[in-house]
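Worked example 4.2. Below are the chains of a multi-component assembly; read each line carefully before continuing.
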Amino acid sequence: MSDPVISIEGLRMSYGATEAVRGIDLDVHRGEIFAFLGPNGAGKTTTVEILEGYRKRSGGEVSVLGEDPERAGRGWRERIGIVLQSGRLDPYLTVRESLDLYAGYFRAPLPTVEVIALIGLEGKADERTSRLSGGQQRRLDVGMALVGDPELLFLDEPTTGFDPSARRQAWEVIAGLRDLGKTVFLTTHYMDEAQRLADRVTIIAAGRVVARGTPQDLGERESAETTIRYRAGGEEVVVQTRTPVETLHEITAAALAGGEPLEGLEVTRPSLEDVYLELTAEAVESPSDGRPGS
Amino acid sequence: MSGLALVGHQFRYDQKAFWRNPASVFFTVMFPVILFLILAVVFSGEDVDVRGGIEATTYYVPAIMSLAIISATMQTLAMTLVIAREDGRLKRGRGTPMPPWVFIAGRIGNSIVVALMMLVLLAAIGALFGADVPWERLPAILLALVVGAASFCCLGIALTAAIPSQDAAAAIVNALLLPLYFLSGVFIPEDQLPDGVIAFADLFPVRHFFDAFFDAYVPAGGSAVSWDNLAIVALWGVAGLLLAIRYFRWTPRSG
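Applying the procedure described above to all two chains together yields the following structure tokens:
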């Protein structure tokens, strides 16, 4: 947990009069999977492309592996791997050839067979990429980012548009990166993806950070209210409370004393999804003009 | 890997992808051969009133070679680079330590090798139809090939900046080149074209390249090296190079 792998202070990015990123601070530590979560148009891709050296920022300080991405050179690129939000593969090359081609760009690549095993495409090594499913193509995309044996990987919405089984397979590959000691910067708009994979989550909306913490912290926010729901005398009763133990005790004591059953009694905590939707909705309701599609 | 070794590495995979792509193989390799066979059969025995009269087959060998060289360079590069750009493959490559020029050099190498191969293939087929290979002019032929291939590579890379999407690529490239082939005397011998047409075609590089290549290949002319035509082709190439350096983009236009 020594020096941060990524450190951002007061990052701003404007496109003409539109401010897509309005002052973001964050640190990513070595070996963690860091999720950068937010709805479409929140500024995620803009931020990640600044970190990858594809875009020049309007303001703020950025350090990735100790260098400013705007000025970093070949040596820096040896140490990072990038999976873009949308990127197709050469349809006329096989899985193995695609990886060999990229391996040749790096000084000390991983053996191709090892990468094929990591992304679970052993049975498809000599298949052309055009014959892979969408999920398999995405895993090969991760493999091409991994073949240079980078310290830091950027994954921009790696499972958007996937069916549940393809997502699960992609998640296994990403979770496996932690075991390799890689640092992963993951952007996503799926709360469950962040919850499942990330050590720490930062939520942004309309270009600003609205919450940060571990997935557990975010689920146990102070403001979160517990909902108690039951039917009494055919009527549905819903009680919102910040002191669920006391409230529940009162309700059940009264029910026992009155000999009245509490039909369909249910006690629910807000899911992470609820917290996320609430947070991002608040940010978007305040005056903003986040760039759509970025 | 050193820069040059990296170019070789990139070239190997570009070659694989080229030969496995049915559109590349058909339009770049098969189409010029088929075109030559049709023209040679249709006009066999006829003379073209150029350089004091030559056989039609002798005329069409350098004509179709010019077309094949432009197709292997300008057309192939413009189309495959736009497709790779819109696929996000150029952007992905820029995220690696590979220097950008290596990628372009690999593609240019691929185009020049294919152009050279087409020259050999068409010369062999032409010889079967009685158009002798002018071996004594080989240096002039290779000079015209290198100047033309390099210039049309630059023009193809520059043209990508004007092509917004994958779907538009074939349409834009063909809309530019097909009329120029007609107007430059590649399909219809120049003695059958009105004077104004050739004068108009002279404004563009296709005609000058064909002229230079014709001089190199057909011994009836004077000097084998048409310096003025080659100079104009090279100027077009330099203009293309400058435009390419200024306007070439690595990221998709859409999205």
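Take a moment to check your reading of the output against the notes. The first strand of chain B starts at residue 47 and ends at 48. The mean pLDDT of chain B is 92.
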